[in-house]
Design a protein that fits this description.
10 copies of one chain form a homodecamer. By secondary structure, chain A is an alpha+beta fold. Chain A has a single domain, classed as Alpha-Beta Plaits (2-Layer Sandwich). Helices cover 31% and strands 33% of the residues of chain A. Chain A has 2 helices and 4 strands. The longest helix of chain A is centred in the first third of the chain and has 21 residues. Chain A is elongated. Chains D and F meet through helix 2 of D and loops of F. Chains A, B, C, D, E, F, G, H, I, J: InterPro entries: Dimeric_a/b-barrel, MLI_dom, Muconolactone_d_Isoase. Chains A, B, C, D, E, F, G, H, I, J: Keywords: Aromatic hydrocarbons catabolism, Isomerase.
């Protein structure tokens, strides 16, 4: 089951840079593990912005929630969640 | 080069149903041709809405424009266009 | 899997009243069938408005979409869809 | 009498974590007491967000107000309050 | 129990003027009956606008809903409903 | 001459609690003096919110401004000011 | 007593042009009479828009309302009304 | 050439009061100099708000920009700039 | 003096296509005349939208207004007007 | 390929002024280098605001992204990115 999640990241100016770098590294590792597992199917940067558009493939709303709140950058992210489903005109196998 | 395009379709209540069906059939054929060619890489329905999220792979802004204004349903669609690029954490080959 | 769906109904002033009544009667029958089956778990009127808040219990985003677009009043409804999950403080068995 | 209350929680980044945990524990206990009493009829998490949708069953606007401002997390919550009533199509006994 | 209701009236330009006048006369009579009964406690015009701010005194959300949807101008009104309660600084007996 | 004033109060989390209590006590005394004089004709709490709806009866825009900026909580309040006048359907003597 | 009134004019495309011209001529005459009397103190066009910013000098909210609803173009205007008063830094006699 | 400029002032709660007073005094002097010169043609307070509506008479966009960024309170002001021109119904000489 | 003007064009579905084509042809001719004269310095299409971003070089707000309201498509355009001036970092001669 | 980028700059009041000046100087140098290279084709100040409208000429969305996130002021800028293409009415060679 697919969801589009848009994430806008906003780290306060006075946040400790070393700690920010540590959290970003953890975020990257976490994201790549989920991408490798197939759960985080797509991630794109919005050009010019500290924001991404992602497609998640999960079994339930709860599974999506658990994945997202475990993001190391979660406290700094504004999330928009959009449930998706197969479009009647789709011909791609995996555009479920 | 990738773009996210969100399309909200709104056909007026008093529009001729037969003509609407004809336009929708043309739209589907047009969309499937572009999907088959690889230009229209993804299309998903937003659950519950007469809206889709699509990913286009085109050579330029102009190429995207020409594709979109040729949509048979174009006069009834509100478009939101977001230029995308590769995310530094992406591991998928084709999440350019 | 639960979803909150908010529906704002807006029938044009110049729509044929007899046809509107027929559609509303079909909507009511359709809604009550889904309520009886357990899929449409809750429906409340927003006081003073021609709007409702509903809770749906479905197996997937696609199942939700199919239910909603089959609503007889669908062309006159503005939908807002919010995926829900169990709250960590919930004690009610069925607040999944 | 039912009300939908949507709560968006936002604890500042520089708030003392130990105090935050203490307040969250009090919030949970308070919520569960009200759920057990039947006043806080439903609580759901919005998937991906630090937000909930709740249904309260109270005798008056004033009773609702007194319950909400006593929430331990109240200073960190943005509230949206929507008065509800029975929908004419409802068949559930308790969708008052 | 008090509610603030803000009503923005918008009658389409092409609506039959004679019918509009008939509906407005019915609206006025209906409003004055409810004012006389004490249910519609206050009604003010927003200066310069075809809008009013009203205070209703009803026993429940449902009672409010039934009153409002019976307004002859209801199909032409955009409603905003705000539940009120006594302010801790109030000294007026009837600012409940 | 009547004005509706909506006040949303927002005291920063890190503001000294003792000073906040002192300002709130001054605010209450100030409000009750104006209520007693008839200038602050109504004040209601918006249920669930740290906001009020008030009706002021003043001789001019300037008189209203002077009253409002003298509120002890003024620096923490977001104000919305709406000039009112008698509604043609009003029957209450004092709904000027 | 001064008010800023912003007026956005929107005449439907299918409105009879001859009638529109007649109404606009009446509007102009009405406006100029009020300008000559000193009540309509200023009127400026917003560059590029079918909108104006006006300053009215009236004795009360009710006087303002009566003037505005008598505008021949009133049914086609979206109004924004802002009560003004003398600024503490003003040196102009008539910036009351 | 005239411009309407709306200024919303927002000085942070934790800003040094003595410095704030100094800046406000400079702002007042600066404003009055420009008023005396005829460049700052009007300034009104929005009733109840820490905001003003002003009319500037300048030779160019650049002249306006230079005047505004030199305001001592500039860093604390949210500006809205609207270019104006003579209204075809205006009869006042100086409503250019 | 430069202005950015954003134009969103919206021709109603039931507008006569032949008349629409005639107006669009007039619009194009009018635009090209102004471009040739140097007044309409730039015009770009927003990719995917029936909208443009334009830069005008005019002597005054009034000159801009007169140019814009003479656009054959003016009644179908929503305008946003932004006055521009030279940026302190600009090195291009003509980015005034 | 052209993009319009609107940048709103907002440096916190409590940010070290010397460091702010250093960053602004770097920003200016960086901008002028890109202008000289032809990539940053236009930059205009929005009159009265700490904002600019810029036109970039880049080979791809990714090239745009890399340029923008390298701006020394990037952490203090809210960006709006709009992909552009040649307008069918354009006569200027370089309004691609």
């Amino acid at each position: 089951m697919l969801f589009m999640v848009e994430m806008d990241v906003n780290i306060p100016h006075d946040f400790d840079p070393a700690q920010a770098d540590r959290i970003k590294a953890e975020e990257k590792a976490y994201s790549q593990t989920l991408q490798a597992s197939g759960v985080w199917r797509h991630i794109w940067r919005k050009a010019g912005l500290y924001s991404n558009v992602s497609i998640f493939d999960v079994e339930s709303n709860a599974a999506l929630h658990d994945l997202l709140i475990a993001l190391p950058l979660y406290p700094f992210i504004t999330m928009t969640v959009t449930p998706l489903c197969r479009h009647p005109s789709a011909i791609h196998e995996d555009d479920r």
